[in-house]
Amino acid sequence: MTEHHDPDGTYDPRQLLVDLEPEAGRLLDRHLKLAEDWLPHEYIPYSLGRDFDKEPWTPDQPRLSGIARTAFEVNLLTEDNLPSYHRLIYGMFGGGDGAWINWVGRWTAEEGRHSIVLREYLTITRNLDPTALERSRMAQVEQGYERPTLDPLRGLAYVALQEVATRAAHRNTGRYSDDPVADRIKARISADENLHATFYRDVLAAAAEAQPSATVEAMVAEILAVEMPGAGIAGFRRKAAEMALAGIYDLRIHRDEVVMPLVRKLRLFELTGLSPEAEAARARLSPACHQLGE
Q1: DSSP readout, the chain?
Q2: What percent of the chain stands above pLDDT 90?
Q3: pTM, whole model, 2 decimals?
């Protein structure tokens, strides 16, 4: 990799993507060897299905607890925004071909299975009102998701954090559900998210070698702009509070299972030769991490 250490922390985003592309290609090859080719329909108990025109959905039909249903809804609606995520990540990595775009295509295809299997499960088991769920999906996708910047380093920092966050949210939802079918589905999705997080984490590690100051600034900016998975969903604050009280996802989990492992992997507190701006950003990181767990 060609290194472009800039003492003032500035960098050329397009050049950095060029420099990191060989590593992205290696990590994509690794991912393809590790990824499991699973099929959503094999996880669904179709024998439980009934026709909705003959037996409409009623509130007494769900078997999951109310909080588990809330978590499933938040997880699914978060996954439903895949069109926006694809657009943003494609824009972040640029057009053309090569490892970056090949990764975007593979990631998008794998993520698409998550909403498929979740919606099939919730519909077949009647754990959520399918009419309300579809209306929520329409609203969520119409609203979409935007980012304040398409800077590649900020984007990589964001997705590295969010993939681990969604991994934790899915896994904890499955465990909380007290349903072996739901738990198996959530474990499968969580395994995918783990591989996605590993890709982004290791790309960021390479970026930290090439551009330590810019990487520190990007990571600190994203950590300080913490946004829980599913932000933007109608009634999200209330739903997130319910999930936090149940121990499914809260700020302590965010700090201990999402932020700090990535901080340690990137050795953010050990990097040397940083610009004054990066040093100032790093100085804000430790107290911010402490406050996340309070």
Answers
A1: ------TTS---HHHHHHHHHHHHHHHHHHHHHH-----GGGG--GGG---TTTS---TT---S-HHHHHHHHHHHHHHHTHHHHHHHHHHHH-SSSSHHHHHHHHHHHHHHHHHHHHHHHHHHTT-S-HHHHHHHHHHHHHH----S---HHHHHHHHHHHHHHHHHHHHHHHHHHT-HHHHHHHHHHHHHHHHHHHHHHHHHHHHHHH-HHHHHHHHHHHHHT---TTTTSTTHHHHHHHHHHTTSS-HHHIIIIIIHHHHHHHTTTT--S--HHHHHHHHHHHHHHHHHT-
A2: 81
A3: 0.92
